[in-house]
Please model this.
Amino acid sequence: MSAEPRCVVVGGTGLVGHHVLRALRAAGLPATGVARTPGPRDVGVVAGDVTAGTDALRRLLDGADVVVHAAPYVGPDPDESARVNVTGSRALVAACTATGVDRLVYVSTAAVYGAGPHRDLSVDDGLPAPRSAVSRHRWHAETLVRSAGGLVVRPHLVVGVGDRHVVPPLARFVTTLGALPESADRTRCSVIGADDLGRLVAGLARHAVASSSTWNAVPPTSVTTTALCALATRALGDELPRARLDAETVRRRALAAGFTARQHDVVFGERTYDPGDVWEAARVAPPRTTTLGDHAVRWYREHASDREPPSA
Model:
């Protein structure tokens, strides 16, 4: 690999890819983004799609040393999930192999571990048991990437500019319930800022690490459920409920309000993961805590109408 590798970020306008692209460019590396429909402000991003097939992807990757795959499908359609997450990932891996890409980094998800609770779960101890079609397909994509010598990272909850799937639905969930369980100050979860995840993935893309490695892409410290809910409600300009009720009452409230048991468990269950040595491998200083800066808060409030039910 050359001293300044050329990087291509597939999914370069998405939640993670956007921040990876920024981090790579901040480090002075030539980096191009690939997105299905880049906008006029997406400088250095070209049109492309993982479902376009290997030949089309080969042309996009020509001359690339490093490829970051951050273009998953996370919606409800299992057929589309298979088309993007499995068939598209297979084509991208084949294109990387054909063009001689030195390193491929795939951004997966801790949802491949399945239902919790998970407490400081490590990659070595956590056997994949995905529950949803999307999680199963992303686990399949992981196996394709590792079989080609690529790297895999598994973030859990990602918050910050570009997030439409964690903070907005979480704020809606909490304010609808009007209370938190009494255990909220004790249960914890792993949360990472999108900018910190971008720095981490960019570091793994830049520096030589063992091939076929897998890490949990989380900070060394987790946050309490109360802190996470406070972060979400603050971002949307809502009030954190003061009421604390027993867990069963909160669960009944959630079901009566139309939320599913799974959505309740995702919010209030224990889900923390062990990052291992991923921050050292990426040569990036880990964040001490997960916060939202004023810029991220402004972004959330500008997109407050985008709230959706929380999912795993």
